[in-house]
Predict the structure.
Amino acid sequence: MASTFTCLCTASTLLDNLLDALLSRDLKASQSALLAVSIMAANLTALQLHVAFWDYNNDSIITPVEIYRGFRDLGFCIPFSLGGLLINLFFSYPTTLGHSWIPDPLFRIYTDTIHKAKHGSDTGVYSSEGNLRLTLFDELFDKMDSTRTNNTVEPNQNTTLASNGRDGSLGVGDLFRLHAKNRVAADPAGWSFAAMEWWTTWLLLQRDGRVWKQDLSALYDGTLFWTIREERAKNGNLAQGYGWHDWLRGLWNNGTWKTWEAEHKDTVEIEVETEL
């Protein structure tokens, strides 16, 4: 029932995006939205939908070039996008096992068996078959949202991402605690993969220093990637928050991400006061 509800919500979102693109006569956005709808129509699992964004030619294979291109389309810098090629290095063989015992010499990822690349020490939000467990997803925020932002704070509304209300969020400290809680014994590979995934997630999603629940939900089912790429195509750029230049500036000024967060919140407060 939960999986069916998730698929229906995702399909509704994708169809809305397609309708908006068609009404705006944006050819590129229409093609992207139409591809997203066609992928959804294939009855894919949530994990397959999550990675479908990187399958540019829709052949159920993700090459290293497509991984790099996908990260660049999401706004990541060249060094970070090159680092994304580690995904092919580590996850190609597990997905290849669904087709052959022989490793793929081109390090391609096969999306029809992407569930075989599921690693340990994760949140468990994806099942072993790649379906989304909504109960575990909700529990993640119920247990780890230390500030209870679902009842107290609204995110910055000047955004193109999914969140538009009081829906819960996770700060950096919450993510560290979540990563520590999920670590299982003798699983250094799983610890490392989980740490890299949450670091990338925070860089992509954070607003006001926090990862918001609806944004993370859209990331899990993959719809957020399409949204970000379309917004970048329309606006030419979409700043995703804390970037390399902020990190370097923090090192130079003996600061950390907390310095950036404080400065960013001050800017948000000034904008709100100006609007009022």
Notes: Strands lie at 61-62, 109-110, 169-171, 210-212.
